[in-house]
Structure formats: structure tokens, C-alpha cells
Amino acid sequence: MHKELSPLWRRVRGWIAGMVVGVVVGVAVTGGLLAAGAMDLGEFARISPFNARAMWLMKQARAIVETYQVDSGTKTVEEDDLLYGAIHGMVAAWGDPYTRFVDPSQLKEEEIEMEGQYGGLCIYIGQRDGRTLVISPIEDTPADRAGLKPQDQIVKIEDEIILGWDSQKVVKHLRGKPGTSVTIWVRREGEEELLKFELAREIIKLKSVRSEMMEETLGYIKLSQFKQNTADEFESALRELIGDGAKGLILDLRNNGGGLLNGAMEICDMFLDGGLVVGMKGRVERANDEMFASSGTLTDLPMVVLINEGSASASEIVAGALADRGRALSVG
User: Fold this and answer.
1) Is 205 helix (H, G, I), strand (E, B) or coil?
2) How many helical (H) and strand (E) elements, i.e. helices and strands, does the chain have?
3) In the CATH scheme, what is the code of domain 209-331?
4) Strand, helix or coil at 186?
5) Cβ-proximal residues to 261 (8 Å cutoff; 6+ apart), any chain
6) Where, residue-wise, is CATH 3.90.226.10 in the chain?
7) What is the per-residue pLDDT across 160-216, written as a single tens digit (0 to 9) for each?
8) pTM, two decimal places
9) Neighbours of 154 (CB within 10 A)
10) Which DSSP symbol is given to 36?
11) Is 112 helix (H, G, I), strand (E, B) or coil?
12) Contact 224, 193 (CB under 8 A)
């Protein structure tokens, strides 16, 4: 089969409307005619993610790699890996650091984080222009105790330079068996040389809410992230502070890298009496959405929200909604 592809490549590249072989629907187009049972060209265009010429080019690229790549005869590449790689490339082509494709294995890793227990260092990371940046270290974890800061760029893990690595590969190298250590090197603004950090991995059991009475009438709640049970933990802490006599609240979202949107919504709902919390507007109508608080509040105590450069995503939504609605003063 492979030996027939190279001559085909030479024959068709000079044609204006040549033979098109679609990898998704397995159809052939010759001179603009489609032959695939009852399927016509309109149906092909409807279900194909690319036009016929682009699909043909993808088919030829795969055929050339499978024919001439050195390891193609002994190395098997799963169909899903080819598909996910193509989708990664398509999404990356938009150049948007905040939009990414998550394949099933990556999703499983992120679900582990949201459940709040795993072995590692506990750093929120993000990527921009091929660089891996610390969004925020989570309070009282190995990364936090070692002194990592938001906007630190991770340059090396052990002896490997990680420029260009995707986030899944970075996370895989940072996580490991509890008790083992990992050395990372970071570039920090204002520092001429790379900073070296030797970190011991731990079982990370994240408690996303911490609270205390700072004075006789001032309640303090620290939110480190928004995960599955954050809203329930937050409500319990808030009720306890009110029961202890709090007359004012400090909500600390510093170095909160975000998490689940529904957790942020549920917390806003405790302070906002109905009305818009967050709106999403896209280029097309179906991408637009608005999310509203329900009527009634848990408390109307005066409140200050603390933020910094490590406050991102869901924590920005909470801080912004409370400030925009005049419910809290945002400081930071």
C-alpha cells in the first residue's frame, strides 16, 4: 500500500482539481465529483473540519510520514494520538494563550487537582509564547514555602530546559512520588541570574478555605482555589465567623489561581441579591451566556476583597462581581 503513494503524489500535484482522499469520511473526489455511496459533496463539506484540498493534504502528509519516517515500520502511533496532535496544532495556530485543547489524559490530571489530593509541589502554571510561568503557588505547600512567586518563569527542571514544553509535560515532571525531590530553575524579573529551588514533593491535600477571627469583630477568610467542595467549605467558615460575632469580613483571594466557575458563582451568590454575576460574549450568538445570582443573601456584612498579580480566572470573577455591584471594596 505504501509503495503506491509516492507515484500518486507525483501524479496529482500538477492537477488543478485532482484526487482528494478524506481521512475523516474516506471519500474520493475526482474533478469535483464525490463517490462515497449516498454521500455528496455538500455532505462532505458539512461534516469535514477542513475543505477538501486541506483534507487531501493531511492525508498525503500522513502517508509520506508512514512511508519514509525512519521508525514508521516498527513504531505504532495510535489513531487518537494523531487526532489529538492535529487538534492541538489547530488550537495553537490561533495564538491565544488562554485557549487550549485538553485531551482525556490531561483532563484526568486536572480532575485530580480539583479533587484536592495528589503528590507534587502545588503550583498553578500557565503558558505564554512557549514559556512556562508560575501563576501562583498555593499557600503552605512546597512551592509556597520555597519562595516561588507569581510570574516566575520555569526554565529548567533538573537538567532539562523546558522551553516549548506543553503544560502536561511540565506537570508530569513536577509531580512524583511523595518524599522525592526535584530541582527547578526560574527566571525572575529583576534578577540577573537564574534562581535555583530544590523542592521536596509531598502528598498535597488541599483545603481551599481557611478562616479566623483577626479581631473581636473582624472575620478573615482565605480562599486558595475553587474546587469541587470550596463553596460548601466557604459557607461553613462564613457561618462560623458570623456566629463568633464578626461585624466585617476580609476575603483574601491573593495568589488564588482560579478553578471551577460554578464554585465562584456559588460564593458570589452568598453576597449578591440576584442580578448579573458574569457575562460571556463571543463572536457568534451561541457563544454568549450570562450567569445570575439567585435572590437573597447569606450576609450583608461590609467586606474587603484582597487581590494581587496571582489572582486569576475564577478569583477575578468573584472580586470583579463584588466590586462592580458595590458589595465589596477590592484592594490590591
Assistant:
1) strand
2) 10, 18
3) 3.90.226.10
4) strand
5) 226, 314, 317
6) 209-331
7) 999 988 887 898 888 888 888 999 999 999 999 999 999 988 887 767 899 999 988
8) 0.61
9) 23
10) B
11) helix
12) no
